Amino acid sequence: MPTQYAVCLVTVCDEKTASLIAGGLVEGKLAACVSVIENVASTYRWKGKVEKSREFLLVIKTRKKLAEDVEQFVKRNHTYTVPEILFLDITHGSREYLDWLGANTLFTTNIPKDKAGRIIL
Length: 121
Description:
This protein has helices spanning about 15-25, 65-75, 95-105; strands at about 5-10, 35-45, 50-65, 85-90. By secondary structure, the protein is an alpha+beta fold. Helix 1 runs antiparallel to helix 2 (about 65-75). Mean pLDDT is about 90; it is low at about 115-120.
């Protein structure tokens, strides 16, 4: 049974950015929890070259309705030109955890209806 929740994956280049984004999302109730995994080895193509770097992976637990708010917050506080921001639906989880997740996030989006769909860079 699908839920109203999602996991968002974001990679960042340093601990300072990871802490800033994780803390801001949780303090603003855009996420109930952000797990930070350090020393992730990433290989990717950028500007025609294959690059390798060590990054921090943020695993953000949130409501699907807050996806645009989370995306905008990440973009405003990220150092990359094109940050990785991927949302994955949570299709099942323990009732207790999902209840906790819901109790610790905003119920609806903060984006005014006239700005919905617009990307703030």
